[in-house]
Amino acid sequence: MKVFCLRFTFLAFVSSLALFPSLALAGDSAKHLNSQDKAFEAFSRAFALIQKRGVPQKTTGELTESAINGMLQSLDPYSELYSRKQYEKLQNESMGQYIGIGVQLLPRPQGLTIAKVTLNSPAQKAGLKRGDIFVALNDQTLTPQNEQEVFTSIPNKVGQKIKVTYSRGEAKQDLHLNFAAITESSVLTKNLGDDIYLVAISDFQKNTAQEIKTYFNVVKAKGKKIKGIVLDLRNNPGGLLLSGIETAELFIKEGLILEIKNSSGKTTQTYPSQGFSTLEYGALSVLVNERTASSAEILAGAIKDLNQGKLFGEKTYGKGSIQSFFPLTEELFVKMTMARFYTAGGKSFHKVGIVPDVKIKDQLTSELYSGEDKIFNAGKKWARLKK
To answer: Bridge-partner residues for 83, per DSSP?
Structure first.
């Protein structure tokens, strides 16, 4: 799933390979080794040929990284090679810290559309709004073919100037903004009245569960009841797996939250609720859309399978796989898919998604939590009326 956050988030083999010596083995083992020998020999010859005669010329490091990336990309879209800078950036983002202008962009048929504007960010101060469409950056027109290239060409540093051309309706406008260091909470909470509370999670960061717990501890300390919660997981691409599980435990008192199976279908880990839930609520509405993914789908799926609440919105994205990081060198890191997620009901949502109980089409043009936000209003109404 492509998600670009400005923030903008849209992360050695060997320099030469010696051939394996011939091994005098019989049967399938010998065939396998002979096949492996031939594969490495072909790779070694291709590497040497490209290095010697390829146009344009590439360094050994460049060819090596391309080879590793090619192998990773043959697995799935989520496996890739990271530089140390990219890896450290990802770690900072898991703490809610990044450098950018403060918008989350999503690909739509009409172009890259703002799904969220961060409070007190350069984007908000300049007047950018949800539903605005990015047309060009630094006079480079954005297309589905060049989006990633344009974004990665912009230096990611505080004070970096950027020209944003965007459209709102028929009008196109230019803005000149500076990148800033932004610290953003992953949780938005709000009292909606009548003892109904909004909890919106943008992604799962290290402190997500604790922020939610702290908020409701204050609510209870004031002697207020929690009649209902509207849990907004729309546009949530996932984040830290353990944070998603910790958050699920706030809402689910007992039952299996998640099961993880490896490539052979064997269960390697299970995550039952540990009964740490401190939230005593009457009703739970969960808001999802086609950009709800990964850890957010785990939470939504567990709530649905265990009948802890009702889902409103669109079918979710369907990213039911888990990636792990492995260091190759001091400067290179591999992110690789290792296993698949299964919900409490034993279902894999990978490439399938989770179907909500009440289907409502999401519109990026409507202001969040306004009278035009149909998914939010349906969830709020159900939470208010449920007994």
So the answer is: 332
CA dihedral 315, 317, 322, 323 (to 10 degrees): -170
DSSP 144: T
pLDDT in tens, 244-285: 999 999 998 888 999 999 888 899 999 998 766 668 899 999
pLDDT of residue 154: 86
**AA letter at 24:** A
Q: How far apart are CA 328 and CA 334, in angstroms?
A: 7
Q: Torsion angle of alpha carbons 309, 310, 312, 315, nearest 10°?
A: 90
Q: Is the pTM of this model over 0.85?
A: no
Pair of tokens at residue 172: 């196109």
Dig out the tokens for 282 from the structure: 């009457």
Dihedral sign for Cα 139, 143, 146, 150, please. positive
Vertex 47, ends 42 and 51: CA angle to 5°? 150
Closest CA to 258 of 295, 231, 284, 290: 295
Q: Is the pLDDT of residue 33 over 70?
A: no
Range in 98-102, 107-111, 337-341, 380-384 with the lowest mean pLDDT: 107-111
> To the nearest 10°, the Cα dihedral for 263, 267, 268, 269?
130
